[in-house]
Amino acid sequence: MKTTRRNFLIITGAGGAGMAIGAPLLASGCKPAKDVPVSYNEQVLFIGDNIAVTETKYGKVKGYILRGIYYFLGIPYGADTSGPNRFMPPQKPKPWDDVFPAVWWGNSAPQNMERRYANRYQSFVDHWNYDDVSEDCLRLNVFTPAINDGKKRPVLVWLHGGGFTTGNGIEQDGYNGENFCRKGDVVFVSINHRLGPMGFSNFAAVGGEKYAASGNVGMLDIVAALEWVRDNIENFGGDPGNVTIMGQSGGGAKVTTLTAMPAAKGLFHKAVVLSGAGVMSGDKDYSEKLGEYILKEAGLKPEEIGKLHEMPWQEYYQLANRAATKLAAESAPASGGMRRGFNPCVDGVILPQHPYHPEATPLASDIPMIICSTLNEISPSRDDASLENITLDEVVERVKQRAGFSSGYGEKAKEVVEAYAKAFPDKKPVEIWSMVMSTRQSVVTLANAKSKQPAPVYVAWFCWQPPLFDGRLRAFHCSDICFWFYNTDLMLTHTGGGPRPRKLSEKMSGALLQFMRTGNPDGGGLPHWPRYTPENGEVMVLDDVSEVKNDPDREARKALPV
Known about the structure:
about 550 residues; alpha/beta; Rossmann fold; twelve-stranded mixed sheet; 18 helices; 15 strands
């Protein structure tokens, strides 16, 4: 049996980081659940004609109540993006007369699903969850402690990772909002939006004004979701005037991109970036050239561009990726943090500038921000235990060829590796290798740019390592998510479960909740967390014992190429 969200939750339950709490609600249930332990000898799921029903601008929705938390899943916030809507800005959903059954996750956006579970160990650790794939993918999920009670709770909008090409709002069990909502009395929203060729095919140069927005429609989808939150979240117990956007990896880059979009101004009030700095976006010329290559690959003239709307998405997806591969092979490598391929592009209108290069977007000057990365974004020995015994000289040779997302440091590799080894003498060679590949360089660049604005920025470094796979997972990419959302006993394959990760999760989720309420993470359980300054490089090191350090890898980073 493939491990899906459904059978994994059946096996493990979806309790809190500690234990599941929340009293059952009878009838329609509009008030928050009382915090009492749930016995599994009692009913914990409530669903029916008059249970968990509320209004949206487009019609009524009906969800369910699980352990005292309301679930509303797969709510349409936009119309089907197929056919004439393909490559176009998102359209409003068509209103409905019947009650919409918001009881199951919405479709994932079109993406490559081949060999998604090819590596059995990776499938075990991450057990990615994917439902049907469709262009009718503009759907969102809402978790809330109460509905229609007149209370305005802070709202968190979660943006999934996967670059700008893969993923969905429920791809990991750690994305479940139940425990976080219960702990903090907040509302949690996660969304699906267009990705890859369906979201970022730029035909502005070949298709004319009609296609002016085509290179950024995936980001406009997210703006549409935030507009839905603004217009509807009060009925779900949320405050449209206190919205925090938060994303990891590609989701982090989506957060920084949103801060630079005029259309998103005023739709959120705080921002959290995890392991995805997104300092720069795509180049307009390259993005438009990709559109030309797609048309050429399809064997179409500009006046025949309408045929791209008519072909099955799978066919278009494949030919667009072939075009992207050909353009990449014929182009010089991107410079700095420039993005290539199917990503947002700086078009001068939807995205007027790179978000944080050469300076921070002025649109975000009043937005407090948290930036967090993990110590070992990439752990080389995760799937190969033999690499635990690699020597430092062998690390140098590896880093010459490849260093994480970098193409490699060439003859500078020895200097870089030795600098990290000197700065962290307690780390074995495989760990030094990991740190070189997982450098905080982009985090510091983002933090330095953001620190020049009035609103504060806070920086964290997640260093907690799970006792799994003989310690080879380390503090890996994605591992911090479940700690922020109080899901360490739910995301067992990232933490092992139990009191040790739960203790840190109590503090991290508490700090996030405090940040959502006030724009400052202090007071949530972690030690005093000062705002970041370029001079001192203040960073909250998150571990069994958390503490603030001043730029602990500064000397090592000096060896990295500019």
